Every structure is written in C-alpha cells, then in structure tokens.
Amino acid sequence: MAERRVFAGPAVRRLRREAGLTQAAMAEALDISPSYLNLIENGQRPLSATVIVRLAERFAFDAASLGGEEVPGGLAGLRRRLADPRFADLGIAPHEVEEWLHAAPATAAAFARLFDAAPEGRAESEDDAPEVAAVRRAIEKWRNHFADLDAKAEELADELRLAGGDLYGTIAERLRTRHQLGIRILPADVMPDRLRWLDWHARQLMLNELLRPASRTFQAAATLAQMEAKDEIAALVAGAEFAESAAARLFERHLIHYFAAALMMPYGRFLRACDATGYDLLLLQRRFGAGFEQVAHRLTTLQRVGARGLPFFMLRIDRAGQGSKRYSGASQSPLVDGDARCPLWGVHEAFARPGEVIADLVELEDGSRWFTQSRSVAAPGATGSGTPARFVVCVGVDAKVAAPLTAARGIDLMRAPATPIGLGCRRCTRSGCVQRSMPPLGRALRFREGERGVSAFDFGGD
What is the pTM of this model? Predict the structure, then answer.
C-alpha cells in the first residue's frame, strides 16, 4: 500500500504566524527556499520527511499532529460525521473529505465541534454524558500526555528508588513521614463499595483487601499524587475551563491516576524497557509490578518531545461491547470513537480466553490497518448481584509502525491477510457480511424478488 503524502499547508502557515516569522525567515530556519515553503503552505507540495523532522526539531512541533489534528478522529472521524443520513443526498466522495481536511483543517474542526454538539449528531458516543465527552476532548487535546506530571513523577520515582525497598513500601513510608498518613488494609465487607478511602480525621488511607498488589501500589500512589502534584494538577484542570464542575472533577481524577501510573512506570525507564522488550506487554507488567490495564494505559502517554514511543490507542470494553475507557493518544485511530464494535474484531474473543493476549491484524474500509492486542481483566469486587465484573482491555497501533512489536514478529503487516472490520454496522458499508445486524446509515435498502443474500440487509451504493 502506498504511503499517503502529507499536505499540511494550513498547519505550517499557522505555525509560522504563531512564531511571528515571514516566509523567508521560516524557510531559512528549515533550510529550504521561500518559494518551496510558499508551495507547501498553499497545498501544492507535500511535506517531505526531512522538512517534518526540521519542523519538529527547530519549532518543537508535534509531527504527529500534521494534517487535520484538530478534528477528533482525524480523517476517519470526519468521514464518519459526514456519513450521517442528513448529508446522504449530497453525494460527498471520500477524496473530497480528505481534500477539505488538508486544505482547511480549522473549518473542518469547526464543523466537527458543531456536529458533536448537536443532540441528534453526537460523534463521540451516543451514550456519553456531556461531562464525560468534555473530559475526553480535553484528554485528546493533550494526546493523553501531560509533560509536567511526567517530569514530577519521574523525579519523585528516582527519589523513592534511592530510599530502597519496594515501591509500595517506600510510598507508604513517605505518606507516613511526610504527610502523617498511615495505611490500613480493611476487609471487603467493611468497604463493600470502595477501593480507597482517605480518612483525614483519622489520618489514615484505607485500602480494600481485594486489591491486588499492583492495584494497591496504584491507589497508594494516587493518594501521594493528591498531595505532591496538587499544584500541577490544579493548573491543568483550570486551563481546561470546563463549564460543569463534574467534568472538572472527572478530569482531576484522570490526572491523579495519570500521575500514579507515571510514578509506577517512570517515563524514561518505561520507554527504554518498551524499546528493549519490543513492547512485550506481559514482560512490562512483571518488570514494573503493574497490571495489564495500567501498562496499556501508560502506552498511550508516550509522547514526550524528543523521546516518543509508538502511538498506541487503548480501549476497555464490557461484554456488551460498551467502551468504559477510550484513549486514542497520538494514534488518531477511529477504533476508539463511538460505542459500536465490529463483531469480527478479535477484541471480543478475549472474553472466552481469560489470561491470554489475543493479537489481531485488522483492516478498515479506508484501507488502514491496525495491529491490536487484547486481554480480559477482572475488576476487584463484584456487582450487586455478586457477579464478578470483567472487561477486555485492548491496545493497538497503526500497522505501518508496528514492526518493532514482539507480538508482530514474523507477520508481514502490510500484506498478510487481515480481518476486514468496520466501525459498527451503522457506520460500515461492507456488503455481504453475515454478521451484519442493521443496515448502514445513508444507504437505501434493496429488495430483490426471489433472492436472499448472506446478510438480511441488501443496500445500494454511494
């Protein structure tokens, strides 16, 4: 499959104007001619790899953001919005959407915001509460990488390592000596609906006995985050300017958990381990004393300038396919958007194979390929009926950059057979799918006398 050329004139022009440079000055900084820069800004020349690297090095620009980064979900997200039945009569071709996104990303982003705000046209998830959607937008704006929190957590982790012992023990000792907080492990029947409870009056942190060692360390680290990263977290929450206090609290909780994970898996050490192990998920778990879900989440955060990891996304679903965690990181993957999952995707198979990591190479309708790894996880505690809560956590990365993964060794990622999947039946226009449960949006149903296809729904073309 040919590499897509990157036309990002508006993004480059915006960067130049924000830097207060003329075309001649910026061209000199990039070691190119002013006429070549002019062609780039006007969409008449694509960005070469060399120019992209120079932009990143000399302007601290995030190269992963070139070409439509302001639209949640990128090109696939914009196409999904325009597939709404209200636009069906316009006959919008796929190449027109791509041209719009490359030529005018700001206006495409404006359309996406208006579309997402409309009650009848929510693109993120029909079931997302407004405050949840607002927090998701804030997280994705940062690509789930918060440099100040990572730096502080890394510094604190090094300090705790010098204190010796296991991480949980050193965190407990720091809570005791610096913050006068003790830790007690309480029986599940005493804390039936809580995992962590900070009793300021008694100066004690209560932890549920059902917590596994990795989760126990995580909850203790989260408590430390509330006190030692308070200012950094407060600044990020204030900067998000949420309209609802509930959204601000949800974002604050996300940042507290972010810091806790960064303390358990310090950025530099974790990235080096990823590179050395080929992003071996189970080995990373053991090396850092973390849970599978914690490692999966951490993989989506590796976007430090000058020290980036692979652009992973993360998804956590229940047995009904509902996503309770969705982080696209820098991947811009459409697989995390919406709340419908293709039944052909191997992510569902992980429920039937507990403890096993299920690898899958999938291909979307636009030809993009994704290499995913999924594993079932059990939540501590039980529901009101006593049924254990189980989820599947999935991490994935664009197949074009998945070669370093241990799990992908021996696979020709761009030529090997891949599972053809869609973004849920209502957004998928693949014909002849035996798993189809409903027709796609914007397509007219066809009925042919005396015929019955493999799918109950036959539909017309564009």
Answer: 0.77
